[in-house]
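To whoever is on call:

I kicked off a structure prediction for a single chain this morning and the downstream step that reads the tokens threw a length-mismatch warning. I double-checked the sequence; it's 530 residues and nothing unusual in it as far as I can see. Pasting both halves so you can look.
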Amino acid sequence: MKSLNLLKKGIALAMTACLLVGCGETAKEETGAVETEASENATNERKILHAGSSAGMFGASNLDPATDWNGWYLSFAGVAETLFKLDDAYNAVPTLVESYDEPTDGVTWVFHLRDDVYFSNGEKMTAQSVVDCFERTLSINNRGESTLAYESMSADAQDLTIVTPYADPTFIYSLCDPLLTVYYVGDSEDYENGAHCTGPFVVDQFTPEVEMVLLKNENYWGGEVKIDEAHLMTFGDDDAMVMAMQNGELDICDGTSSAVLVCNESTGYNVLSADTSRAEKIIFNFNASDFAKDAAVREAIAWTVDREGYEKISNGTKRANWGIYPATLSYGDNSKLDIHIKEQNLEKAAEVLDNAGYVDTDNDGVREMNGAPISLVMAVTENDSTDFCDVLASDLRSIGVEMKTESYLNLDSFETYNGVNWDMSLSGKYMTPTGDASYFFDQDVITGGSANYGGYSNPELDKLAEQLHKTFGDDARNELVFQMEQMLLDDNSYIVYCNGTNTYITSSRVSGYKPCPSNYYYLDANVDLD
């Protein structure tokens, strides 16, 4: 822990020095009191909000919801909406849907749409307009087939009927995906320069990778939109964004670790966060590493990871996790699991290796397993935390295990992983972006999963995953998920050490802003400026 505290102090000193220099240069260049645009808003009748991101959160390629990931950007900005929305517990709740009938035959879903929703051009949303929208999107975007599997779609006034090719208990969660945002389809529509959607805001001006200017949607069905205008601005780095926040040019900005470190210690700022399903975890190379295949080595590593220390040096932008899913999820309740590792314990880690007979026979500080030194290679990308790896390597060394870190440009496919030598690797991803627990298991865990890069295989878990696909009802599904989580914890095959947060810094003028656990949402009608 001492090394983590020193690291945190070093980051604080470096950031403070950097910002003091920046502020000093600004003071030299500018004479007199300079009123910024954000401060002028206080005396302006129109409520104009300024938000900044250094993480590319406003980076749509154009304004067509059907292309690329633009539906996500438009949902994030509060321009577009989906039939269902994820709540804070990642439950799919009706948004543009009034009610719905679950299939009695397993495949036929009937959605009764709201009768009071209008697109930003004044046209009423009907079931047929949703069919037209979905058909256009699915014909354009190559993610369409994997996002929405259906046999047929039909419309009758406000009733939308979708027949799926197989029984799908999580079908409504698919309808939360921003690829399926609802927008108006017509012959004269210029989608790339601004589709007509149903959200509280409409796009007024747009410069890719620079700025998106929003106006309130006068036809919004969901109540009064509190602000009149919003400017969503992209910054090239954290320092520029933080400086803009300190200068009063922004009302909201990304709560990155470095930004929180500075603004959390200043007056007049609020730091708001929500735990997400994004997990940072250690995966193992079961295909080619004898060390990774060894249960004692994996358990010793699990005891060694300083999860709470990592949370501290992240300035609250990470949450330590001893289970698999975050506690915000109904299937993330760790009290339902038998978690035997609940703390960092280096003595216990050493004991596990001792009991396995892995000792240091040549007194070089590194234990041997079957005559070979336990020397591990941690494969990471350039975006992964070197701080985490440095601390882990130091702690592992204290129990007689060597760890070397190798950095690569990309590790996002079987090809890239097969091309490097590795025993374990850092992997970060959203484990349940639409609230469906199957997502993580299907991709990362089951035998032959599309992102199971380490080759983990457990036939019993595979059977449960298949059963999960056929099971309706939250309680029954959660019971299966808990069993699958327990299997991963028992053999330490995946070490989830923290979950990310959606963290934002707001000025004292902002009210009504609430971060969401899902990364699909950012602005809504409730955001206000005092």
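Update from on-call: the warning came from a stale cache, not from the record. Cleared it. Sanity check on the structure: The chain has three domains: 37-78+199-268+513-530, 81-187, 275-502.
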